[in-house]
Automatic annotation (TrEMBL):
Record's bilayer topology term: Multi-pass membrane protein
Role summary: Protein O-mannosyltransferase that catalyzes the transfer of a single mannose residue from a polyprenol phospho-mannosyl lipidic donor to the hydroxyl group of selected serine and threonine residues in acceptor proteins.
Organism of origin: Ruminiclostridium cellulolyticum (strain ATCC 35319 / DSM 5812 / JCM 6584 / H10) (Clostridium cellulolyticum)
Protein name, per record: Polyprenol-phosphate-mannose--protein mannosyltransferase
Sorted UniProt keywords: Cell membrane, Glycosyltransferase, Membrane, Transferase, Transmembrane, Transmembrane helix
GO molecular function, one term: dolichyl-phosphate-mannose-protein mannosyltransferase activity
Listed PANTHER family: DOLICHYL-PHOSPHATE-MANNOSE--PROTEIN MANNOSYLTRANSFERASE (PTHR10050)
Family of the protein in this entry: Belongs to the glycosyltransferase 39 family.
Main location: membrane
Lineage: Bacteria, Bacillati, Bacillota, Clostridia, Eubacteriales
């Protein structure tokens, strides 16, 4: 029996899954078939007289002439207060403004320097701050040597320049009066050197720093034009960060995006090329305004995260027409861990998620209103805005294409539903100008405008986003096409492994949160500073049950309007079920806004039961906020006792501290 089971497992382990495009095409075809059957059956029922749409339902267009909801002063106050309450902890401790800025780089192989300490020192730590250089100069190893009692140099260890604006630390201890650091290749920039004496928390004040070979002349130039000087290595000792906190360092995928934004500023070939450029432009804007520092490269993403709070309030109000339910929608977004963490790290997921929400926000208008009742011009406005959001989203990250599939199917359903109404109108014998030129205006013209809104305009935005890359010398327009091929090959062929990667079915139950950042230096003092990427358990653990229940309840109650957030959740999630490359829990981020709307829908249904249901809902909201407050220290990088972080590690796969 055991052999039989092994053979079965071995067979399935060698089954090669179809490619992503094939799998997604199959999913889309299945949805098309289902939608087609639904539309055809409704038309047949109209023709047979089994489905009757009243004259009022066919011709009344008062709803289409009015906005879906109207805000009053109270709503603006609620949104303002919620936005401010979220913004304060989101921006607090976001990042520092002062980091080492002045660089030095080895001119050639075996170039380096000697640090004279002036006396014998018990060295416990040597730190270098990794600077900014062209990609071709990455990977340099800086070999640390110390003068021993025999007056010769002994090897300590090597620090490899593998990051960008972050501290690299050697904790190998030795006693010496001089330290020599030699590079095995040229070009890698260091912005500061710090040496720590045993028992001290401040950098040791060195006597002098000299080149190993004063005759070496460097021909390497910094991409940002800053001169490479040896004295720059010890000129910003007040900016040394013993604990290597997130306030002075890039962490996790920040190694890619701020650096690429700086490449755009300096018009050199970009470091990160696995995603379209527009998201890095947002990062660049923050750096141009606030400087090249952690606050500068994080602030714009954080402001987008702040803007999601009123956006979710508006979306909730648009769908549910109730102020309390709009409040619930924004409230759950406020206190979701993933939303907080992903909008404070300088990556591009926050931008694409924001524009994906906008895409569904605008298509909702088109879906719930009949275009022939609204009139052609009025009906085209949400399509234009949806297409604009799609163009910005797709120029940021390709996962906006997942949303485009959902939007397209929603549009198909909306138009099929209008055919049903047109069939009912023709059968009724009524006469109305609303249905004049029905096919030419509301199908053929709309289709032509959709080509403009969803293909041409997004295409122009997408192409224009490559301006900085095409302006790099020797690049030109060919680099646009080269990058498309490179991105597709990268994501399609990626076979790498990562200790924090996880599969789509693990995300909702959070079996493997990502430890974005942690400070090793604080562990010696029984403290920790961590940033953990995960969701709020009171939202995430009920996300899949809520999605399934929401679909069932919406079908049973015939709440057609819920199709939009349900499709939003499904089409941001289903593609990850068929992706073969490694994925991470943060890929669930763009699903969560729609899951929250579905949870609020179930809250609405629950509250309709009456009794103490609203008190129960308020209790759930309060508990969600309390859990967020409990976890806030390890979501924000706050320094807390190690025991507190340990207390929050509820499961074996949760690691929150050194």
């Amino acid at each position: 029996m055991e052999t039989y089971l092994k053979n079965i497992l071995n067979f399935f382990s060698h089954v090669k899954m179809p490619g992503f495009a094939t799998m997604m095409s199959s999913v889309i075809i299945l949805f098309f078939i289902g939608i087609g059957i639904w539309g055809f059956s409704r038309i047949r029922n109209i023709q047979k007289g089994n489905l009757i749409i009243t004259e009022y339902g066919l011709l009344d267009n008062e709803k289409e002439k009015k906005p879906l909801f109207k805000l009053v002063k109270k709503d603006y106050i609620i949104m303002l207060v919620m936005t401010l309450l979220y913004a304060i902890p989101a921006i607090y401790n976001l990042g520092g403004f002062k980091i080492p800025e002045t660089p030095w780089a080895p001119a050639e192989k075996n170039d380096g320097f000697i640090v004279d300490l002036g006396k014998e020192v018990d060295v416990t730590k040597v730190m270098i701050y990794q600077g900014y250089n062209e990609e071709k100069y990455d990977g340099v190893k800086f070999n640390i040597k110390f003068l021993n009692s025999n007056d010769t140099y002994s090897d300590s260890e090597a620090l490899e320049k593998s990051g960008f604006f972050s501290w690299k630390v050697s904790t190998k201890e030795f006693k010496t009066s001089k330290i020599k650091i030699i590079a095995d290749k040229p070009g890698s920039a260091i912005n500061e050197l710090a040496i720590f004496e045993k028992g001290s928390t401040k950098p040791f004040k060195v006597m002098s720093i000299t080149s190993v070979d004063p005759l070496i002349k460097s021909s390497i130039k910094s991409p940002d034009g800053k001169p490479y000087k040896l004295s720059n290595l010890i000129d910003e000792q007040d900016r040394v960060d013993l604990y290597t906190l997130s306030a002075t360092n890039t962490y996790f995928d920040e190694v890619f995006y701020p650096r690429t934004a700086l490449d755009f500023i300096n018009k050199i070939h970009p470091f990160e090329r696995t995603h379209p450029p527009l998201g890095k432009y947002f990062v660049m804007i923050g750096m141009l305004i606030f400087g090249v520092n952690p606050f500068g490269w994080r602030i714009i993403g954080t402001l987008f995260g702040v803007a999601m709070i009123p956006l979710m309030y508006l979306f909730g109000y648009k769908i549910f027409k109730k102020r309390f339910l709009a409040f619930c929608t924004a409230f759950l977004m406020m206190f979701d861990f993933m939303h907080f963490v992903q909008t404070r790290i300088s990556t591009i997921d926050v931008y694409v998620t924001f524009f994906v929400i906008l895409m569904y926000y605008y298509i909702y208008d088109y879906f719930v209103k009949k275009s022939y009742k609204a009139g052609l011009k009025r009906s085209l406005v949400p399509l234009f805005l949806c297409g604009l959001a799609f163009g910005i989203g797709i120029a940021t990250k390709w996962i906006a294409m997942y949303a485009a599939v959902g939007i397209f199917l929603i549009l198909v359903i909306a138009k099929l539903d209008e055919i049903v109404y047109y069939t009912a109108y023709k059968k009724s014998g009524l006469s109305s100008d609303l249905f004049s030129k029905f096919w030419s205006k509301y199908f053929f013209k709309t289709a032509l405008f959709c080509i403009l809104f969803f293909i041409l305009i997004p295409g122009i935005i997408y192409f224009a986003s490559y301006t900085s890359i095409m302006q790099v010398p020797d690049n030109g327009i060919k680099e646009f096409f080269n990058n498309q091929s490179f991105m597709y090959s990268f994501h399609n062929d990626l076979n790498a492994k990562h200790s924090y990667s996880s599969q789509w079915f693990e995300w909702p139950i959070m079996t493997k949160p990502i430890w974005f950042y942690g400070s090793k230096a604080l562990a010696a003092e029984k403290l920790t500073s961590s940033i953990i990427c995960m969701g709020n358990p009171l939202i995430w653990w009920i996300s899949i049950p809520s999605l399934i229940t929401g679909i069932i309840v919406a079908i049973k109650r015939k709440d057609k309007y819920m199709l939009v957030p349900i499709f939003g959740a499904l089409f941001q999630y289903i593609p990850w079920m068929v992706v073969r490359r490694m994925a991470f829990i943060y890929h669930y981020f763009s699903v969560i806004p729609f899951i929250i709307i579905i949870i609020v829908y179930l809250i609405k249904v629950f509250m309709e039961l009456g009794g103490n249901t609203k008190k129960i809902v308020c209790t759930y909201l309060v508990l969600t906020a309390i859990v967020f407050i409990m976890y806030y220290p390890i979501l924000s990088g706050m320094i807390v006792p190690r025991w507190y972080a340990s207390l929050l590690q509820l499961f074996p796969g949760w690691s929150f501290r050194y």
